Amino acid sequence: MGDLEIRPAVADDIPAIVAMLADDPLGAQRESLDDLTPYFPAFQRLAEDPNQHLVVAVREGRVVGTLQLTIIPGLSRKGATRSIIEAVRVHAEERGSGLGTRFIEWAVDESRRQGCQLVQLTSDATRTDAHRFYERLGFTASHVGFKLQL
């Protein structure tokens, strides 16, 4: 993996992050590279919340991946803390390079470091390749997820 660095995202990374979020059929419907304005206050909210970890992978000075890790304290499971991995994206030129695996391993290790007893994630039902990827990394499709658009 060479000179890959995983670090907290900074505001200057927003255009690269949004470009990766928009670089697939689902993201292209939800994200806008034409107007980055709404992403900056959202980034600020994430940056101010100690339970939110928006990170990027950087190779040779270029952002090539991103993910968000959220730490959630709770009462269930005897007061267990859990984490949620969200918005995992790898730049098209880096897919198949092992970066996705490295990212998920980083998120699991960081979850352990934060005292989590469970790591969870969701993946759109149409992303069958992603499902196989997560299963190879030890995740199980143990629940059915529901969403309500507001």
Mind explaining what this structure looks like?
Pfam families: Acetyltransf_1. InterPro entries: Acyl_CoA_acyltransferase, Bact_Acetyltransf, GNAT_dom. One of its GO terms (molecular function) is acyltransferase activity, transferring groups other than amino-acyl groups. Keywords: Acyltransferase, Transferase. With 150 residues, the protein is α+β, with helices and mostly antiparallel strands. It has one domain: Gcn5-related N-acetyltransferase (GNAT) (Aminopeptidase, 3-Layer(aba) Sandwich). It is 35% helix and 25% strand. It is built from six helices and five strands. It has helices spanning 14-22, 25-30, 39-48, 76-79, 99-113, 128-136; strands at residues 5-8, 52-59, 62-73, 81-90, 118-121. A five-stranded mixed beta sheet has the order 1-2-3-4-5, with helices on both faces. Strand 4, helix 5 and strand 5 form a beta-alpha-beta unit. The longest helix is centred in the C-terminal third of the chain and has 15 residues, at 99-113. It starts with a strand and ends in a 14-residue tail after the last helix.
Characteristics of this structure?
150 residues; alpha+beta; Aminopeptidase; five-stranded mixed beta sheet
Which helices and strands, and how do they pair?
Elements: E1 5-8, H1 14-22, H2 25-30, H3 39-48, E2 52-59, E3 62-73, H4 76-79, E4 81-90, H5 99-113, E5 118-121, H6 128-136
Parallel strand pairs: 4-5
Antiparallel strand pairs: 1-2, 2-3, 3-4
Distance between the first and last residues' Cα: 40 Å
Query: How many DSSP helices?
Result: 6
* Total number of domains: 1
Strand content: 25-35%
- Percent helix among the residues? 25-40%
Largest pleated sheet:
5 strands, mixed
Order of strands side by side in the largest beta sheet? 1-2-3-4-5
Overall shape: globular
Order of helices and strands: EHHHEEHEHEH
* Overall mean confidence score, pLDDT: 91
Rounded Rg: 15 Å
Number of strands: 5
CATH architecture call: 3-Layer(aba) Sandwich
- Class by helix and strand content? alpha+beta
